[in-house]
Amino acid sequence: MSQYKRTLITSALPYANGPVHIGHLAGVYVPADIYARYLRLKHEDVLFIGGSDEHGVPITLKAKNEGVTPQDVVDKYHSIIKDSFARFGISFDVYSRTSAPVHHETASEFFRKLYDSGKFVEQTSAQYYDEENKQFLADRYIVGTCPKCGFEKAYGDQCESCGTSLSPTDLINPKSMISGNTPVLKETKHWYLPLDEYEPWLREWILEGHKEWKTNVYGQCKSWIDSGLQPRAVTRDLNWGVPVPVEGAEGKVLYVWFDAPIGYISATKELTPDWEKYWKDPECKMVHFIGKDNIVFHCIIFPAMLKAEGSFILPENVPANEFLNLEGDKISTSRNWAVWLHEYLDEFPGKEDVLKYTLTANAPETKDNDFTWKDFQARNNNELVAVLGNFVNRALVLTQKYYSGEVPALGDLNDVDRQTLAEIGKLKADVEKSLDTYRFREALKLAMDLARLGNKYLADEEPWKVVKTDPERVKTVMNICLQITANLTIMLEPFLPFSMDKLRGFLNLGKLDWSELGRTDLLAAGHQTKQPELLFEKIEDATIDAQVKKLQDTKKANEAAQATAKPAKENCSFDDFMKMDIRTGTIMEAEAVAKTKKLLKLKIDTGIDTRTVVSGIAEYYKPEEIIGQQVSILVNLEPRELRGIMSQGMILMAEDADGSLKFVSPVDKVKNGSEVR
Length: 677
Ligand SMILES: Nc1ncnc2c1ncn2[C@@H]1O[C@H](COP(=O)(O)OP(=O)(O)OP(=O)(O)O)[C@@H](O)[C@H]1O
Ligand SMILES: [Zn+2]
Hints:
By secondary structure, the chain is α+β, with helices and mostly antiparallel strands. The mean pLDDT is 95.
């Protein structure tokens, strides 16, 4: 048993400027949920905390762009996020938000306590100011060139290209995000947490005291500490956030990364009056689930804040994950490169566990990983359907067939039986060890080994053959298969809660505790099981192809949005322009030019005559679609031969950003032969 009486699980507060995607799930919420469900199955005293992070500059910028208030933005996404988590079965004990009054109060008090006990350094410095909008430019209100890598769109707080954390005055050629103007420097007062003073303590606490932390986490902490910690401003000139509760701080709010982690405390307060049992008692173990970009905030800044305050416990572990990518590209909310949870839930009803399974089996625990729809399909078809679904289905169906669903009695055991049953206990110990050390991928693989064990046992014992010669023996085999199935409902419960609920229904069995895992008498002889349905269904190629197509469309839309118009060509004289004779005409006939992919042979009524034109539009228009289409045609272009056809003139086309061609034609129909000028 551990030295702890309670566990407080926090999961990073998703930023309420977009919905939740599979990266968030794989990095944070799925492992946190597995851990919470596991501890609950063990009857431990555990709280699982979540909530939306609703302050900070990106939200105010989004509101500005959309012509709504920041509150509108966070209301919208908080409700989408909260609802999708609930549908997906992320089992928060509370899901709060940082715009809630309890949070404003808590964060404000927290700041005030540090302020009153002299933990901050007050400093006036020159900061960028947009004179047109009369506003200081914090964090993402300012862009410029990264001094480290030369990326031209680095933000005032971070370069998204090289990951360096910056302050606005580091940027080369800074520009205001609101007006595009070059900002001026203006004096303003802020409060700083002197992280440098906490350096020796952090070194001791993490580098000496927490060598067991994951290497990616420990490594990042070491690198931050070794490169020297600087005082960090914890306030901003901004009108969206928790107001700085100090006289003379009008127009200032707490820095979003100061207030967000305090959100874990506020959410706990919202949940229970006993919140101090979790936050202030050293017998409580606190674990932060986060992605790698949040490590510095949870391992260095927030602990320094808690330490400065003095009455709070510190995290016992921070099992941060690396990043999940999507089909080879970084997931991005702004580029819409993501699989969105709320869309997945609509498009794959009843398949919550399939996503949870895939994200766990392929979790970015030690390095960045890639989600692909092919892998999703393979995990479902080859593992959930072929291994787990297949085993439990055979066990239940054969029980129906031989015994009308009644659990048969266990007879004499042979060596294989004994080894198989003993394996359940061994797997239990291994799964526990993995879960206790936050190795969820490994834990899931081991738990699935129990289903593999069942499959192998069934295949080796072949009850469908033996039943003809030795029906007594088959009773023992089927009893063992059913005991394995019952054990699966416990072992896989943290990972596949919806499916295990279903499976318990087939077994006609209530929810069992983790402590009962490993028992070989979970189902008594004579217990009545029910007619089973399929636990998992195969996912067909067409379903996967549709998802891949959706992503390809996103990519195309992004490329088109990125494309900038080419610069204008050199001037030409009016006379030169007037030499071109452009008319309106109508396509009378159209056919593909044999042995070419691009060319159509068109017959055009130009008002002057009817003539033949060869046009390179076959990839964009089918011949039958364009008969009767009015077009603009350059009629005095020198005729030329294309593929043996004399082409007399050229149809004008507009080339879109993706290279596709569209007709340039009058908005309203005009008489053929009308001049275009
Ligand atoms: N692709 C990813 N893989 C793993 N974890 C991620 C990924 N994207 C975000 N996270 C984690 O999810 C948590 C919540 O993320 P947050 O709402 O701050 O979004 P974000 O990092 O701004 O992501 P995005 O820019 O995609 O919206 C954070 O702990 C973050 O580290
Ligand atoms: Zn950079």
